[in-house]
Amino acid sequence: xxxxxxxxxxxxxxxxxxxxxxxxxxxxxxxxxxxxxxxxxxxxxxxxxxxxxxxxxxxxxxxxxxxxxxxxxxxxxxxxxxxxxxxxxxxxxxxxxxxxxxxxxxxxxxxxxxxxxxxxxxxxxxxxxxxxxxxxxxxxxxxxxxxxxxxxxxxxxxxxxxxxxxxxxxxxxxxxxxxxxxxxxxxxxxxxxxxxxxxxxxxxxxxxxxxxxxxxxxxxxxxxxxxxxxxxxxxxxxxxxxxxxxxxxxxxxxxxxxxxxxxxxxxxxxxxxxxxxxxxxxxxxxxxxxxxxxxxxxxxxxxxxxxxxxxxxxxxxxxxxxxxxxxxxxxxxxxxxxxxxxxxxxxxxxxxxxxxxxxxxxxxxxxxxxxxxxxxxxxxxxxxxxxxxxxxxxxxxxxxxxxxxxxxxxxxxxxxxxxxxxxxxxxxx
Length: 429
Known about the structure:
Layout: H1 10-23, H2 28-41, E1 45-46, E2 58-64, E3 67-73, E4 82-89, E5 94-105, E6 108-116, E7 129-137, E8 142-146, E9 179-182, H3 189-197, E10 204-213, E11 218-220, E12 226-229, H4 232-247, E13 254-261, H5 278-289, H6 294-302, E14 305-309, E15 312-313, E16 336-338, H7 349-362, E17 367-369, H8 381-389, E18 392-397, E19 399-401, E20 408-411, H9 414-426
Parallel strand pairs: 1-2, 4-13, 4-14, 14-18, 15-19, 16-17
Antiparallel strand pairs: 2-3, 3-13, 5-6, 6-9, 7-8, 7-10, 11-12, 12-20, 16-18, 19-20
Helix pairs in contact: 1-9, 2-4, 4-9, 7-9
């Protein structure tokens, strides 16, 4: 189903653009490349990390693996400047190809995959899956690749499992092997992917490849009030962030930063994750280039703040008892302020006030989410970033249903509302 753009409704136009973005970003490496392409078109200058740091006024960005950082330096910036940071992540729960990606059972060629993040296993059944990611050749060149429909994990028929509706149990080692061929003359999945990428398989020294659902995004509902897509968690926030950054002018007081990390779904403890150094590298090198010493850097941090933007749970109409009855955010009710007393979210009262100012300036209604006391709360890059940098951090995001499914859903109004709130924050609200 094609996305319907209502000319006088910017929320639908935003979703149409997001649909194109998410379809072109089936892996974190593609997502980072898509963000970089938009920044290039807007005149941002790519920073090579091995070269001297450029802190001249204007837009800059760097790509490190599946992470992308962008920042805009205002005229007259110096040690008295702060940072206004929006954080998100480019990765989503998925199935990742193992180093030996091929196996054979009963004549079928199967893909050996490893579970990445907290997937809803059953949601990956009976879907036409592609594979996407990067190939790295012997000489170090990186080639992005995205196949069409290639694989499928067929569910066992009910005739062979009469108790399936009493509870489906999927062993991740035994039952999540996608079928990709039968009697294929080569039998090598990597050879097939290399051919799609236009490289010789003998030249491939390494790869980071994952499965993705090839079904395109779609609007649905009686008034097309819902939006379904893969990877809403968290490409919705990545797209809202980059579009908001390009919406607004430079803030004369602060450096505006968009930090899109990789590996959030597996703990963030990597060189491109929020627990790693990539954002700190950008902040420290920018501050140093602006003339700040060690004390000046800390003063800049003290003037700074972070909005950690990630998907949050809307109340589920079939399981309302799983939510806190006094905090039941709904789709199309506006973006979320995420609160947790155990600091699984980093929001405190000071941060809540910062978010309220941004939403008020944007003319956006916000909702508050707090977990049911009997159900453990998930977490985000927010507490990790606050702990690493000591900067005031607030957890926010758009409400979604079917989180961590191969195909999630949100309301049509919320992504654009999040974009507007992020833009107001960057504008100094």
